């Protein structure tokens, strides 16, 4: 499976969603820079191994992600995206938890042409939701 894409940010998001939905943490981590920050909890942003461990733990729950770019600003090797996303997370009791938000993401394009997340803030503004 190709886990990164040297096309535009739209293609990057499509490939990222497929990697995320595969449940493979290594495939998802290929979409982040080594120093990337993920802020699922704005009070405790994670980077490095803590970000990777948190992602692996979350992916073990087999969530399903859908995402669509709301706004995109690209200049050379940097992109700022606003993304509407929804996620369904199966619970142990069989119920499905539905999460949604408007994410704010900063991506950089590497020397290989692939876009990668530098800052991943799924709840860019926690007062807003995608619904």
TrEMBL record:
Residues 16-115 form the SnoaL-like domain. It comes from Streptomyces achromogenes. InterPro entries: NTF2-like_dom_sf (IPR032710), SnoaL-like (IPR037401). Coiled coil: none annotated. It comes from the Bacteria. This is Nuclear transport factor 2 family protein.
């Amino acid at each position: 499976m190709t886990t990164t894409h040297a096309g535009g940010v739209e293609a990057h998001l499509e490939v990222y969603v497929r990697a995320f939905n595969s449940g493979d943490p290594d495939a998802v981590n290929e979409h982040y820079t080594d120093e990337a920050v993920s802020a699922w909890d704005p009070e405790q942003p994670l980077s490095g191994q803590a970000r990777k461990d948190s992602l692996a733990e979350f992916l073990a729950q087999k969530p399903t992600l859908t995402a669509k770019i709301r706004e995109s600003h690209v200049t050379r090797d940097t992109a700022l995206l606003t993304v509407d996303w929804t996620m369904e997370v199966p619970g142990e009791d069989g119920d499905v938890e539905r999460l949604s938000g408007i994410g704010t993401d900063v991506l950089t394009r590497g020397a290989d042409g692939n876009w990668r997340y530098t800052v991943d803030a799924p709840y860019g503004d926690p007062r807003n939701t995608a619904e």
